[in-house]
């Protein structure tokens, strides 16, 4: 597999299959912005995640919502969201929220489907390694799925651990 070129927001991938070269648009690159309101602070912080990739089966929709990580399960951290008992503490008045999940221990389809089951509008999976990969997650429906680098996921998680409100916008537009 090689990266054969770049069209704005689309990575073209080329595979050699039985001597035939196949090329297609593998994934769009999301534009991700964060607004973080820390407790006791008057003004929010604004961040842009410059690296990320939509899952191969993700709709390329714009979504906005509060970021939530899975709640501890049986007294231990549950950042990967693989356990069938995974749950999120979603405030009753919150209409749109985005699941933040760490890569590992189960398939992308399982993670994304679990977030969708709990009514998340998007699943953002941060890699457990510095590099990013294309996620395959057929059959997960209309939930938006994005992978971001480990460092970005840990950065967001650090704010959630301080009980900050983290709002995320994911878009396939390159600017507003």
TrEMBL record:
It holds the Pfam family PA. Keywords: Signal. Residues 78-156 form the PA domain. The keyword Signal applies. Residues 1-25 form the signal peptide. InterPro entries: PA_dom_sf (IPR046450), PA_domain (IPR003137). This is PA domain-containing protein.
């Amino acid at each position: 597999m090689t990266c054969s070129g770049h069209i704005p927001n689309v990575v073209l991938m080329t595979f050699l299959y039985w001597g035939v070269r196949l090329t297609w648009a593998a994934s769009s690159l999301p534009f991700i912005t964060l607004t973080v309101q820390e407790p006791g602070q008057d003004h929010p912080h604004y961040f842009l995640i410059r690296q990320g990739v939509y899952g191969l089966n993700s709709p390329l929709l714009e979504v906005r919502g509060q970021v939530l990580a899975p709640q501890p399960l049986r007294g231990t951290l549950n950042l990967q969201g693989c356990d069938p008992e995974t749950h999120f503490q979603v405030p009753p008045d919150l209409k749109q929220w985005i699941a933040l999940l760490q890569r590992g221990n189960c398939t992308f389809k399982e993670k994304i489907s679990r977030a969708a089951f709990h009514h998340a509008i998007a699943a953002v999976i941060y890699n457990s390694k510095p590099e990013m990969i294309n996620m395959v997650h057929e059959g997960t429906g209309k939930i938006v799925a994005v992978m971001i680098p480990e460092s970005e996921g840990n950065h967001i998680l650090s704010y959630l651990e301080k009980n900050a409100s983290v709002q995320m916008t994911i878009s396939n537009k390159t600017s507003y």
